[in-house]
Amino acid sequence: MYNNKLDGPIPPELMNCSKLRILKLGNNLLSGSIPSQIGKLQELYYLDLSGNFINGKIPSQLGEFPRIDTVDLSMNNLSGGIPVFVRKVPHLDICVELQALGWWQSHGGARYWHILVKRYRFYGKSVPFVSSKDALKNATLRGYFNSAQALADYARFSYTSRKIYRTKCLPLWLLEHLMEEYRHIALGAVASSAPILYFDNITPSNAYYDLVTKDFRASEGCLRIERLFRDIRVVLKRFGSNIIFSNGLRDPYSSEGDTTISVTTSAAGLLSSPILLEREALLATGWWVNNWATTGNYTSDHCKWTGISCNSAVSVIGVSLLWYENDNITGELGRFKFSCFPNLRSFKIRSNYLLSGSIPSEITVLSTIRTLELTSNNLTGIIPSEMGRLRNLVHLDLSNNHLTGHIPPTLGRLSKLKILNLSSNSLVGNVPSTLGHLTQLTTLAIASNQINGSIPLEIENLKVLQVLDLSRNEIGGSIPSTIGHLKRLRILDLSQNKLVGPIPSSVGPLTQLTTLNMHSNRINGSIPLEIGNLNFLQVLGLSDNKLEGPIPSTIASLVSLTSLSLHYNNLIGPIPLTLGHLNRLTDLDLSENKLVGPIPSSVGHLNFLQVLDLSNNKLEGPIPSTIASLVNLTYLSLQDNNLTGPIPSTLGHLDRLTYLDLSENKLVGPIPSSVGHLNFLQVLDLPNNKLEGPIPSTIASLVNLKSLSLEYNNLTGSIPLTLGHLNRLTFLDLSDNKLDGPIPPELMNCSKLTTLILGNNLLSGSIPSQIGKLQEDN
Question: 180 and 65, same structural domain?
Fold first, then answer.
């Protein structure tokens, strides 16, 4: 059953197959421990459980097999020590990850392992095998041996042992024998200071060499091991991966090639491969294991796992996990052992708020990391100040979490940083002035936190900054005039803070701006004329402040503007006629000011306008008929002004309108029947005017209408029976008019109605009995 997608534990009942000789369950998704009943399989001579997720200890019962020849438990999550039966079974091939099974602790103690990696390309004599093994035991003789001699001895030993025991994986007792009998090989007897000797007939033109020696202690962690291996990998990478030994023997299990020498001493065999360490560290998170159980897309090659990228040496350089590709990113971030990934350049996890825990300080060992994105998770705790050690970091995004505490000033040491996004957390304190040292920064986003203090003057040093977003905080003080030095700014968002003082005229030189947002502050003074220099500006949001004075005519120069919001201020004077030049506008909101004069007919030139809100001002005169040209309009509010004259019948051309509010004006005349053409209308508010005449029956065509307010007018006639067709209507107020006749029973067909106000009219007759149905339903 090798190489399938079987999961779950190994059933103990399987051990009742007493005649079983071969059991191959490798490369599946099996979990749990190895059943202790496995000792019942007395006929077993081949056992392969490799490439699963088996955990626990190796059961001692494995030593009870009298015929066993091969045991492969590699690539699992086994722990504990190597059982003593390893010495007793004569033909045992147990390929396991030795570091995980405590080989160093049980056999190495605190001893140093010494690794020598040497790579040659040469043509010459082979070196004879050493004839006196006793001489090799003498540590004082080690320095006299040519490094190639030690490598030749290991080649012969490896070749002979594998041939005799018919295995690709040296039995552990053989490796121990090697360590005891051939210490110059096993412990790297060639000193790091030993010279590299050439053979007599090798010339420099035909010889290329490199030498790396490294010491390893049993207690070393992943990080140091990986750093030591890094230099070794540099040597190996330079010449490829073919293995030819210096005595002319070719390793029978190496890849093809005949000119490259690549040898490690056998101590390397006692070390877990750094690549396997990386693979095991990935498995330990459970993020991929759970995903395989869901998708079944299992492969033993971790470089092919979802979101994993590797370099040519098969070492992980990138992790990118997005919740919509892998919805099993759960648990805590600390599951990921960053110290086992020294070559990691990019780490991105977006779990849709499933990943929790704090940012481990261990993350700061990633000396090669360039991109760190932990956005949209459920991380808590502080940002470690040690993150300032990640000197190669270019992109840091910790947004959309629950991080607390201060922004570490040490982030100012990340001199290569281009993007810093800490938005949508619960960070407090000031914006550190040290961020002004990040002269390569293009994006600084700290929005939606609880940051206070003022905008640091040092921000003026960020000459290449393109995005500055400090919105939705508690930042006070004034906007520094030096912000005008940031000539490359495209987005400046200081909205929803506690900023005071005027808008500095120095914003005028920020000619690359596309978004200028300062709404919801306490900014006062007038809108500077220099704002008209921002030719690329698309969004201008200055609403909900204390701005005063007129709307500057220079705003008409902002020909790229799509959104202009100046509402909730104290602006005075007329609406500039030149606003009609802003023919790309989609949103125009000048409400809640003190604007006077007529609505300029030039507003009708704004062909792309979708939202027009001029409510709560002191505008006067008629509604310009040119408004009917705004065929893209969906929202029109002219509420609470002093507008006079009739409602233009041409408003019926605005067939995309969903909201129409003309309330609290001095409009006269009838409600035009053309309003019945507004098929998408949901809200029609016309109260507090001087409208007269009957309610047009065409209103019944507004099948999407939810709210109809006609109160406080002089409307006459009866309530149209056809209003009962408005089955989406929830609010109806016809009060304070001069309506007469009975309440039509058809009105009770408006099944979603929750509010019905008909008071202060001239209605007669009885209350329809069907009204009880409305009470029952709503």
Answer: no
